[in-house]
Design brief:
Helix content is 40%, strand content 12%. It has 273 residues and is α/β, with parallel strands linked by helices.
Amino acid sequence: METMKDRLRVILGDERLSRLEDARVLVLGCGGVGSSCIEALARGGIGTLVIVDKDVVAPSNINRQAIAFESTVGRRKVDVMAAMVADINPGCRIFTHDAFVLAENLEELYETCLVEAGGRIDYVVDAIDTVSTKLALAALAQERGFELISSMGGAKKIHPECLRIADIHKTVNCSLARIMRKECRKRGIRHMRVLYSCEEPVRIAATPGAARSERTDLGTASFMPPIMGQMIAGEVLRHISGLGKDDDVSAALAMHDAAQKGRLAGKRGGRAS
C-alpha cells in the first residue's frame, strides 16, 4: 500500500527514516518562514513537532505564509498549522502553544516544551522576529547545548540564490544579522547558526509622512520566506537523519560559479552536463 513516506524511504533508507520518526523538533514562530518550515518537517517525516506562536492569520499574511488563506483569516496560527500537519502526516505528534515568545518567558517555555516532548528536543528552529528574544535563545542554546538554527531577515530581499547557512559572525549584507553579530559579541555568544541572505537589500522608499518606527519600507516578496523555511527544514532533516553528513558542496558551488563566468560550459566550449 502506497504511503506518504515511500519516496522518503528511497533517499533516506530505513535507519535514517526511523531517526526522523523518533525526532522531536521545536519551532518558534508560524509566520512566513516558520509555517513553511513546519510543513516541510511534517512532510519530511518528523515524529514530534512542538510549535509556538501567538498571532492569528491576517490578510497581509496571504502573500507568503503556508497557513494563510481567505478561509483561515482570523484563526489562530497554531491551530491552522496543527490541522495542516495532521492532514499531511497523521502519525506526527504535535503540541501547540498559543503564546508570545519573549526573552522573559523563554526559559520557562522551553522547559514546558521539553517536558511535552518527553524530555528531549533534537533541534530548535527560531523563526521569530524580535532581536532580544533571538539573543536570549542563542544564549540559552549555548548554555544548554541544544541544536539551534535562527532565521535572519527576508524583507527587501528578492534573490533566493543568495541565501546561505553560516555562523552569525560570518554574515554580510543583512541588517538583522549585523545587529545580532554586535549583540552576540557583547553577550559572549561564540557561535550561532543562521540562515541569511548575502544580497544587497532592495532600496524601497518609506511612505511619505510615515514615522520611521512604522517601517513602511519593509516589503516582502511572496517567495522568499517560504524558501527560507524550506532551507531551514532541509538543514534540520539532514542533521537529524545524517543524510549528506560528509558531503562537501563547495566544489559543486564553485563549478556553478565558474560555469556562469563561461569557464566550464556553453559559449566557451566547455562540456555541459
